[in-house]
Request: fold
Amino acid sequence: MASSNQRHLGADPAGQRDRRYVWHTWSPVDPERSHPMFSHGEGYRLWDVHGREFIEASALNSTCGYAHPAVVRSLAEQAGRLQHVDLSLSTHELAGVLAERLASYLPGPLNRTLFVNSGSEGIDAAVLMAVQFAEHAGRPRSRVISFARGYQGATLLSRSLSSLPRNRHPLPAPVPATLVNLPVPPRELRRPESLPVLLEAFARAIDADSAEPPAAVVVEPFLNVGGGVVLPDGFLTGLRQLCDRVGALLVVDEVFTAYGRCGRMFAVNREDVIPDIVVSSKGLAGGYAAIAAVTVTDRVHDSFSADPVLGGLRYGHTTSGHAVACAAALATLDVVEKEQLIERAERLGGALLDRLAPLAGSGDVVDVRRLGLIVAIELTSEAAATAVVERARDAGLLVRRQSDAVLIVPPLVIDDDGVEQLLERLGVALPVRV
Reply:
């Protein structure tokens, strides 16, 4: 049965036009399906075209919420001054300002940033960099290792680094990939005793083909699409050591976790580990503009002077480092710092976990876990998780299903009152009392 929100939207002209002409991303082809249609937002709230109010807890890229005046003002001012120039031919000042700022947040020699438009593009660029870096060093290799349940993007290359059903494609894989399955169930993986077991699984993958060591190991510090899986403390540090043993680059996919979402500016800051490449995107401009960053060490960057064709990087897009997107990113980072959103994310994420953790083992709830302001409620099945998402929407709360887990990811500007309202509406949707 369609939710009340879907029934309303299917009847009006705007809904009919959307269903007739728009091909929605990651959605089944269903003539009866109607997507919620929103008209405006403010902070952590959204309103649909019928005036109904929702608490937003599903937007993976919402850092400082909707209609934040500082970000809106920065966008408008930059668009009125200079929208963009092609960075392969020239530059603009904000590209350097933003790249310098990202370097200030990241550890050690992670100083050089390539700007692209999305996390998927960022992963493509990172893998190409890793393979070319190996060529520059005189030890050609192309194999990549990643989590089987990981999600690195929607391009052909990034899809090949995952075995999630939605990522399957009918084309030959552009890179040889060794995919590592979780050695224990997600609810057990975050425990300290799971660390050596997980590292051993990656060690076996690294040594699986002695003729060709991997060019790179690409991992998320939190498996988002793969079911909201929290990894054990020390995993990135141990993986750094495994990569160093065989000369592979460590690529950390922070497309989702960066810019405060994980309770730190970057998840790598939680372990003081220095990857070779960090890819970040979603929270960088807070959803106000499309931008992603591929930040590399000086060693990786400087190796490209040996490129035999260009003597530099053979990758980019016309809108890479878009000036308006850079302005939105800088304004977003200002808000993160001035409003102390990182500290708020860690505190409110802990508060949500305290209230929800006792539900684990009750009814259809298998586990409750969190990283920063990301809370995952694992249920017994995808169907059970889908039912929670639909009941939450009917109660005025937007949450997200990832595999058999329901993810709660509100904008970082949510406050204590918003968390209480979120919990109240979630309580209507869950199969057990909050």
About this structure: The chain has two domains: 36-64+339-429, 69-338.
